[in-house]
Each structure stands twice: as C-alpha cells, then as structure tokens.
Task: inverse folding
C-alpha cells in the first residue's frame, strides 16, 4: 500500500511509524509512506496555508488551493487507480476497526492533515475526501490522528504482523473488548493468574476468555454489545452475566 501524507509539519513523520510493526512493514516494502509539506504548494511569499474565516469568527481556516494542488501532484506522480483521499477532522466519521479493514484493501491512501479551526469546505468537496475523526475530542491538529489511522490500517496489511493468529483474531476484533491477558510469573505481589489459564484445558480457557471479554464489554462499553456478532454460546454467557450469575 502507498500512503501519502500532506501536512504543515512534515518533520513529525515518520515518528512512531518508524518503529515496530509499521517500521518493519515499511522496510519490507509492504507500506510505502511519503510525506509532503503543504507549504510547498503555496504561491505567495509567506507560504500561507491559512486565512481568516468568511462570515467572521475566531481563528483561521486552512486555504483550499494548497491541499488541492498537493493532491493533484500526488495523483499526477502515480497515474494508477485514483487514491482514497482522507481528511483528518473532529467533524469526520469515527474511525473504527471495520473502517480500518475497509481502508486496508485500498492500494493508495492520501491523508490530509487539518489544522487550526478548520479546513475550507471545498477541499473535501473538490477532492471527494472523506473526513475521518479518531475520537470525540479535539486535537490541535490532524498529524497524530493521521498516524493513528496509518497504524490501524498498516498493521492489517498482509505480511505486516508475523503472528497469523493475531491477524485472524482481528476478523472479530472491534466487536468486543479483548479478554484479560497474563504472562509469567504465575503469581506477582500476591496476585495469581486465573487458575483456568494454567490448566491446559483449551475449551475451558476459550469459554473463560469469552466470558471475560463479554463481562468487560458489558461493564465498560455496553453500547458495543448491541452491535456485536455473537454466537449462541456468547448469547447464553451474556444472559448469565446480565442475571449476575456468571
Ligand atoms: N483533528 C483535530 N481533532 C481531531 C480528531 N479528533 N480526529 C481527527 N482529526 C482531528
């Protein structure tokens, strides 16, 4: 996959995308990350990327021309299938695991990093850009949001994660919170690892994990339960948890 990022702070990239799973994906050529300085697509002496809002109000709005010129340059340099253009914004659709999976099959993404109080509406209109939010809070800029998006998508690319099971588990991830995990030592500061995990009884372990994942989700993210794809066993565990009998 190719990913082009357009930002006024190109120096903050690759940042965390240089290490771990994403760093290795880039070394192996699974992910081709390119970073563009938005100011290189300005025409004035001051290399301005923002201006005052029409209609008044506080703050500055990012100008449309540099973003549009940047995306045109990126498209011209890669005349293949048109890329999916994304714009980081607190007004965007919330990034989910399902959306990360949908983006991971695209060969080419362009991520535009918003800043200041907003981006001229015509950027999204003219480029057919989809606005993406990483959560219901406001960041000063979209660079960290772009990194979050690229990490979420990049780890799903075939070959990015070595452990096949951890990728396989992804097919259901996002439906429920994960179950609690433990590693050695079996006891630490008086706290023992749940007995069942040491039992070697695979079916009992699987059931314990299903119950704990459901318990956590019910407690911390009850709204996720309504959307989750649950099998008969999970539905029965859920019924018991709701009755307080599990
Ligand atoms: N820019 C500012 N806040 C953001 C958010 N929550 N998600 C994506 N981009 C943003």
Result:
């Amino acid at each position: 996959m190719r990913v082009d990022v357009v930002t006024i702070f190109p120096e903050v990239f690759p940042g965390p995308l240089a290490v771990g799973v994403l760093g290795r994906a880039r070394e192996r050529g699974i992910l081709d990350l390119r970073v563009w300085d938005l100011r290189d697509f300005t025409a004035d002496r001051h290399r301005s990327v923002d201006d005052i809002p029409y209609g008044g109000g506080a703050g500055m709005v990012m100008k449309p021309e540099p973003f549009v010129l940047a995306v045109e340059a990126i498209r011209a340099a890669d005349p293949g299938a048109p890329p999916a253009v994304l714009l980081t914004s607190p007004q965007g659709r919330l990034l989910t695991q399902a959306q990360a999976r949908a983006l991971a099959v695209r060969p080419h993404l362009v991520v535009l990093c918003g800043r200041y109080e907003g981006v001229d509406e015509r950027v999204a209109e003219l480029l057919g850009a989809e606005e993406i939010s990483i959560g219901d809070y406001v960041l000063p800029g979209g660079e960290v949001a772009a990194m979050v998006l690229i990490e979420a998508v990049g780890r799903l690319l075939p070959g990015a994660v070595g452990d096949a099971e951890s990728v396989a588990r992804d097919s259901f991830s996002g439906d429920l919170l994960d179950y609690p995990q433990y590693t050695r030592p079996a006891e630490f500061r008086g706290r023992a690892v749940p007995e069942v995990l040491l039992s070697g009884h695979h079916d009992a372990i699987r059931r314990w994990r299903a119950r704990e994942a459901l318990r956590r989700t019910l407690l911390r993210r009850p709204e996720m339960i309504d959307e989750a794809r649950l099998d008969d066993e999970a539905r029965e565990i859920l019924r018991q948890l709701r009755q307080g009998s599990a």
Strands lie at 2-7, 32-37, 50-51, 61-62, 84-94, 108-113, 130-133, 187-188, 191-192. Residues 2-154 form a domain with the Alpha/beta knot fold (CATH 3.40.1280.10). The chain has two domains: 2-154, 169-243.
